[in-house]
C-alpha cells in the first residue's frame, strides 16, 4: 500500500493514468467561483458553509467548496455527447475533525451527457479500481435510489416523510422506521418491503435474487435491471468480491435518482469515496443531460497507517564546527549525483529517519547504516 500523502504523488498519478485510459480528460478550475453558483445548491454540499469575499469588480466570490457544481455549470448541455472529466483539486470546507475551514485535496471524475447503463458500470468499476490503487483492503457499497424511491412511493409518503424514512434507513434504525410505518398504517407487504431495505446486505450474487421479490412496481424492476447489469460488469473484473449491495447507502432524493455508492478502506472509520447518479441536480441547474460521478476525499487518508517506514532522507551527513563546508558540499553533491536525497546536519535529532549516515565529526568520513 502506498501512502498517498507521504510521497503519494505516485498514487494520484496512477489514478490519473487509470482515468485517462478510459477517455477521461483533466478538468482544471480556479480557486474562486461566483458565490451564486453554490448558493442555490447548498444542500448538495458536504458543508453548507462557504468562504466568501467581494472581488474588485464588486462580485461576491467563493473559495470553491465543491468541484461537481462547477463542472456542471461549465459543461455543454449536449444530449448526444458524453463528456468525461477527472480532476485533482483543492476545495475549501469545514472539516468535521477540526470544526474549522480546511484546504482539502479531492480527486474524482464526472461523466456528463448521454449517460447510459454502460456509463454507470464504467464509473462504478473505476470507483472500485480507485480504492484498490490505495489499498487492497477496501469495500465498495452500492445502492439504488430508484429502487428505494419505488418502495417508498408505494407507501404514499410525502417528501417530509420520505426524508425521515431515508434518515432511518441510512442509520439502520429499525425502531424509528417502525414508528414511522405504524403512524402511516401501512400494509404488511409494504412495511416488510421497507424493512427489507435495511436488512438486505451482502455480495452482488446473494442479494440480487432477494431483490426480485421486492419488485413491487415498474420503477423497482427498472432499477433492479440496472443493478443486475452493473453486477454482471463487475464480475468481469477481479474486484467483485469487494463490492456489496447496501441500501443504507442513501443520498438526498432532491439531487440523486439512480445508483449511489460509498467506498471504505480498512483503518479509516468513515467513507473515503462517495458518488452516484445526480440527474436531479442537473435539472435543478437547468441542464437536460444526465450525470454520474464520484469524489475521493484524500484528506481522510491522513489517518491511514501504511505500515511502511518512510525516510526523511536516504543519506544524512553529520558535521561539526571544525568540518570544512567544502567537504560537506562535495560529499552531498556526490550523493545527489548518485540519485540519493541528502540532509546535512550539525545536530541530528533522535527521531530523524535515514538509510545511511556519513559522519564528518571525527575527521575522515565514516559511513554507517540506520
Report on the structure:
- The protein folds into three domains: 1-134 and 266-310, BirA Bifunctional Protein, domain 2 (2-Layer Sandwich), CATH 3.30.930; 138-261, BirA Bifunctional Protein, domain 2 (2-Layer Sandwich); 313-369.
- It has twelve helices and 16 strands.
- The protein has helices spanning 9-20, 36-39, 68-74, 117-134, 145-155, 159-170, 174-184, 188-199, 204-212, 218-234, 279-284, 325-337, and strands spanning 25-26, 32-34, 52-54, 60-63, 82-94, 101-113, 138-144, 201-203, 243-246, 259-265, 273-277, 290-297, 313-318, 342-345, 354-359, 366-369.
- The protein has a nine-stranded mixed sheet with strand order 1-5-6-12-11-10-7-9-8, with helices on both faces.
- A hairpin with a 5-residue loop joins strand 3 (52-54) and strand 4.
- The two termini are 23 Å apart.
- Mean pLDDT is 84; it is low at 1-7.
For the record, the CATH architecture of the largest domain stands as 2-Layer Sandwich
Total E-strand runs: 16
For the terminal residues, how far apart are their CA atoms?
23 Å
Widest sheet, order of strands: 1-5-6-12-11-10-7-9-8
Shape call: elongated
- What is the tally of helical segments? 12
Major beta sheet summary: 9 strands, mixed
Helix and strand composition category: alpha+beta
Give me the CATH superfamily of the largest domain.
Bira Bifunctional Protein, Domain 2
CATH topology name of the largest domain, in short, is BirA Bifunctional Protein, domain 2
Average pLDDT, rounded to a whole number, is: 84
Strand content: 15-25%
Domain tally: 3
Helix content: 25-40%
CATH class of the largest domain, please? Alpha Beta
- Uncertain spans: 1-7
Order of helices and strands: HEEHEEHEEHEHHHHEHHEEEHEEHEEE
Q: Roughly how many Å is the radius of gyration?
A: 26 Å
Amino acid at each position: 500500500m502506498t501512502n498517498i500523502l507521504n510521497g503519494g504523488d505516485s498514487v494520484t498519478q496512477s489514478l490519473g493514468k487509470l482515468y485517462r485510459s478510459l477517455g477521461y480528460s483533466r478538468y482544471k478550475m480556479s480557486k474562486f467561483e461566483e458565490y451564486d453558483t453554490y448558493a442555490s445548491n447548498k444542500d448538495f454540499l458536504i458543508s453548507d458553509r462557504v468562504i466568501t469575499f467581494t472581488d474588485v469588480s464588486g462580485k461576491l466570490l467563493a473559495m470553491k467548496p465543491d468541484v461537481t457544481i462547477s463542472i456542471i455549470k461549465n459543461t455543454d448541455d449536449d444530449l448526444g455527447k458524453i463528456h468525461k472529466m477527472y480532476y485533482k483539486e483543492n476545495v475549501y470546507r469545514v472539516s468535521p475533525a477540526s470544526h474549522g475551514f480546511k484546504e482539502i485535496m479531492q480527486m474524482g471524475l464526472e461523466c456528463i451527457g448521454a449517460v447510459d447503463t454502460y456509463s454507470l458500470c464504467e464509473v462504478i468499476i473505476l470507483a472500485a479500481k480507485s480504492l484498490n490503487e490505495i489499498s487492497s483492503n477496501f469495500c465498495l457499497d452500492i445502492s439504488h435510489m430508484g429502487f428505494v424511491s419505488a418502495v417508498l412511493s408505494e407507501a404514499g409518503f410525502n417528501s417530509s416523510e420520505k426524508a425521515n424514512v431515508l434518515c432511518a434507513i441510512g442509520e439502520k434504525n429499525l425502531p424509528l422506521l417502525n414508528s414511522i410505518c405504524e403512524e402511516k398504517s401501512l400494509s404488511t407487504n409494504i412495511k416488510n418491503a421497507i424493512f427489507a431495505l435495511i436488512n438486505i446486505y451482502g455480495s452482488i450474487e446473494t442479494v440480487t435474487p432477494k431483490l426480485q421479490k421486492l419488485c413491487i412496481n415498474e420503477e423497482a424492476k427498472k432499477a433492479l435491471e440496472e443493478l443486475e447489469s452493473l453486477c454482471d460488469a463487475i464480475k468481469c473484473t477481479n474486484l467483485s468480491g469487494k463490492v456489496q449491495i447496501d441500501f443504507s447507502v442513501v443520498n438526498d432524493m432532491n439531487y440523486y435518482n439512480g445508483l449511489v455508492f460509498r467506498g471504505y478502506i480498512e483503518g479509516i472509520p468513515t467513507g473515503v469515496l462517495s458518488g452516484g447518479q445526480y440527474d436531479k441536480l442537473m435539472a435543478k441547474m437547468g441542464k437536460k443531460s444526465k450525470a454520474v460521478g464520484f469524489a475521493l476525499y484524500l484528506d481522510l487518508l491522513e489517518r491511514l497507517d501504511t505500515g511502511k517506514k518512510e525516510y526523511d532522507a536516504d543519506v544524512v551527513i553529520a558535521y561539526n564546527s571544525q568540518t570544512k563546508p567544502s567537504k560537506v558540499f562535495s560529499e552531498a553533491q556526490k550523493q545527489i549525483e548518485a540519485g540519493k536525497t541528502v540532509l546535512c546536519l550539525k545536530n541530528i535529532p533522535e527521531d530523524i529517519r535515514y538509510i545511511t549516515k556519513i559522519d564528518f565529526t571525527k575527521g575522515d568520513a565514516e559511513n554507517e547504516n540506520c
